[in-house]
Design a protein that fits this description.
399 residues; alpha/beta; nine-stranded mixed sheet; four-stranded mixed sheet; 13 helices
């Protein structure tokens, strides 16, 4: 009898299982790998970059078609524009594999919060894609550029962002969750990497753009875009963006160039950088201390310097630290005096240091930040000289 009851129970449970009721076959999907959002007058213009699986497959011979297809649509809301796109595309756009969102510069100047609402709210969008901004171009123009080496332009943008962050330090990969969390913090400004189109934008969409030795139209990251609230305020240069990365403990590797004692230059490779930010209050006034420890290797020597001498290594360490410090001081001056935006999380550091004192000044943080005292301490250690101790072309002077 008990056995019959168990069988009946199992039969009932099978009726409650959902199975694959919501399945969607691959041949029914238009897989979106990049999404562009522009603001044209009072309407949103949406651009989607859809991958053509047959053109990127390693098992099938190329038919010389473009590996991606771009569709564009306008609407009063982003949701409406995406749905209207079904009148153009043969399949409904599928956003679960979205890799990057490009926000147009004009949209960014007006504010990006409304534009982000759908992609944060909709269950079909995963939260592991990065957000960037187009500079001196629309998001549509960026997504229309075909790229060499990487067949799918979205992959190129994502890989360049990652490689540049790890090896150069002037860009920062920001995913949608990080951006939304920063925008919701009224005491901290947001930063996202900006990308430019170099060359004739009209030629970028042509297949010949990837069939030449010298590519006429290129996508290149230009630095970090600064946001106050959700509005774009300005673009930092590469050097200033590096200063931001040093202060935010984002430098993994980069290159520093210093002047030699007599003439010529010497290049070093930063192999490790650690930044610690400490907040404090003195007589009720906030103060920030930044300690940066850097390790480097000598990368290229184009001068007459004897690197076998300890005093030469001390000179290299001192000059590298001085160069980093000057870059950071310039970046701080720009952020405090020109933009008046705390993109470093100094407010959070003060909160951690003394929550009671922070509570007294947090409502006035925007007006206090421009005059905040920030002390930067940079320590540099040279670990290696490469496979040669001195320059190949110059012999060290006898001492």
């Amino acid at each position: 009898m008990a056995k019959i009851k168990w069988i009946c129970l199992l039969c009932i449970l099978t009726l409650l299982l959902s199975g694959c009721w919501s399945k969607r076959e691959l041949n029914e999907l238009a897989i979106v790998v990049a999404l562009g959002i522009d603001k044209i007058d009072e309407e949103y213009e949406i651009t989607v970059q859809i991958v053509d699986p047959s053109e990127v497959s390693v098992r099938q011979a190329s038919t010389q078609r473009s590996p991606v297809v771009s569709y564009h649509s306008r609407g009063e809301t982003i949701f409406e524009a995406i749905r209207k796109m079904t009148t153009l595309a043969a399949r409904k756009p599928y956003f679960a594999h979205l890799q990057v969102v490009v926000l147009g510069e004009d949209l960014a100047k007006e504010g990006i919060s409304d534009a982000l609402d759908l992609i944060v709210r909709d269950h079909e969008f995963r939260k592991d894609f990065d957000v960037i901004m187009s500079h001196e171009a629309t998001a549509k123009e960026v997504l229309n550029v075909l790229t060499p080496i990487e067949k799918v332009p979205a992959n190129k943008m994502l890989n360049s962002l990652d490689v540049s962050e790890r090896a150069w330090g002037s860009t920062i990969a920001v995913n949608i969750d990080e951006l939304v969390n920063t925008l919701s913090n009224k005491h901290k400004g947001a930063l996202i990497s900006a990308i430019e189109v170099h060359g004739d934008k009209k030629l970028g969409v042509d297949q010949t753009n990837v069939q030449r030795v010298k590519t006429p139209v290129l996508l290149q990251y230009a630095g970090l875009a600064v946001f106050k609230g959700d509005k774009y305020m300005g673009l930092l240069s590469e050097g200033e963006s590096k200063g931001i990365s040093f202060l935010n403990d984002k430098i993994q590797s980069t290159i520093e160039i210093i002047a030699c004692p007599n003439k010529g230059t010497l290049s070093t490779e930063i192999t490790q950088s650690t930044t610690k930010v400490k907040g404090s209050f003195k007589n009720g006034k906030p103060k920030i201390d930044v300690h940066i420890n850097v390790e480097q290797n000598v990368g290229e020597v184009e001068c007459d310097i004897n690197l076998t001498k300890n005093k030469s290594i001390d000179y290299v360490n001192k000059k590298t630290a001085q160069g980093i410090d000057e870059r950071i001081e310039k970046t701080l001056e720009i952020m405090q005096q020109q933009y008046e935006i705390d993109v470093f999380g100094f407010g959070d550091a003060l909160h951690r240091a003394d929550a009671k004192q922070w509570g007294k000044i947090k409502d006035e943080w925007a007006s206090l930040f421009p005059d905040l005292a920030v002390a930067v301490h940079v320590k540099v250690t040279t670990q290696g000289l490469g496979t040669m101790q001195n320059s190949l072309l110059n012999k060290p002077k006898e001492e």
